[in-house]
Design goal:
single chain; eight-stranded parallel beta sheet; about 250 residues; about 25% helix; alpha/beta; 6 helices; three-stranded antiparallel beta sheet
């Protein structure tokens, strides 16, 4: 079903976190292997605690031997504007858990810049994406990302699209800086149109603390920035039972 939203996306619910993470790794493996040879499989990664288990499993046996790493390109959906070796850097976390553990060519990894001004860094990353895409604007029915991995916060944010922030109204830039309320760091984030330019948008959600906000996002609550996420292709919710016990479910 093309052009899915957070309301129409498929729910895949797993009994435990371990089953959830394994189910998503298997799903990613199948899609990366199905990609035509010499055509890059582009994956935009998410920060947060739950994806850390995903990245660690991807880089562990037997999966580390099975992914077509040389045919995969990795991007960052959002990051704190701090040095890559900073404890709060999403890229630093991914480097530690995945990039340094799997045989991924360095040229296939595209971190967000960590120097200069946040505005310049956003423009630089956007230029990188446009160069790889081969066009200055997204073309309908020609996604850039094969998979866009996202999470949700209890305030309804996703990536670094936080409630009430100007970036929510930016529909021209592909990458933008933002300063979330009470946050210690400025952030860089893909915008709504850049996230939309995905064949598969995947939300990874775990735990009872996310249950209520997941219901609100599925109901398209306008106060939740994640409600406005759409995909050129399909959108799938990967959750554990604790996060989505009251939502119509398709068992994973």
């Amino acid at each position: 079903m093309p052009g899915q939203t957070t309301a129409t996306g498929t729910m895949r619910v797993f009994p435990t976190r371990e089953a959830l993470i394994t189910g998503l790794v298997d799903w990613l493996l199948a899609r990366s292997l199905a990609k035509a040879p010499h055509t890059p499989f582009r994956l935009a990664l998410s920060g947060g605690s739950t994806p850390q288990h995903l990245y660690a499993l991807m880089a562990s046996a037997p999966y580390v031997e099975r992914f077509p790493w040389h045919n995969m390109q990795f991007f960052i959906g959002d990051d704190r504007f701090v040095p890559h070796d900073h404890a709060d850097s999403n890229f630093g976390m991914m480097q530690r858990l995945l990039f340094s553990k799997a045989p991924i060519p360095a040229s296939n990894i595209f971190p967000m810049p960590d120097h200069g001004t946040a505005e310049d860094a956003a423009r630089t990353y956007e230029h990188t994406l446009k160069t790889l895409y081969g066009a200055p604007e997204f073309v309908p029915e020609r996604p850039f990302f094969d998979v866009q991995l996202l999470g949700i916060g209890t305030d309804g944010h996703t990536a670094s699209l936080f409630p009430g922030q100007p970036v929510l109204h930016n529909h021209t830039a592909w990458v933008a800086p933002c300063v979330p309320p009470a946050a210690p760091h400025t952030r860089l984030t893909l915008t709504y149109p850049a996230i939309h330019a995905s064949q598969h948008v995947v939300f990874l959600v775990e735990g009872a603390a996310k249950r209520d906000i997941l219901v609100r996002i599925r109901a398209q609550d306008p106060n939740c920035p994640a409600s406005a996420i759409t995909a050129q292709g399909d959108l799938t919710w990967f959750t554990d039972q604790a996060a989505a016990p009251l939502v119509q479910q398709e068992q994973g």
